[in-house]
Amino acid sequence: MSDTLLRADIQLIQRILPHRYPFLLVDRVEEIDGTQSALGIKNVTMNEPHFQGHFPGTPIMPGVTIIEAMAQTAAVMVGTALDLADKEMLIYFMAIDKCKFRRKVIPGDQLRMRLTTLRGKPGGKVWKFGGVATVDGDMAAECEFSAMMDLPK
Prior knowledge:
The chain is an alpha+beta fold.
């Protein structure tokens, strides 16, 4: 880990990611160590639209949104480290591998997502990441995924 870790608050996140409500799924990114690793924070609240139907009376955060939150954390990590704020970057999933869900995530939980770069370098378009999402120290989900980061010319 480097001596100076970066952070991204919601204002910087919105300058990096094109996502907006209801699909902006990361509230803060801490401990950004260049393009190597970061810790994303998602505060899960009952007013999120997917809880109306997933499931009525028993709200559970859909697994796909947990994976999307991890991907957004990875994009913010790379975007912060490479100074890509206000560059209108788009990010596309290419693959999701080794995905496992271990615990329900419900309103009131804080999802902590530790992301690590497995492959990718500044100037490269295709990156691969590994991620683990936890709640109160218990693993909720883990996966590896690759994404293409597309900057307009």
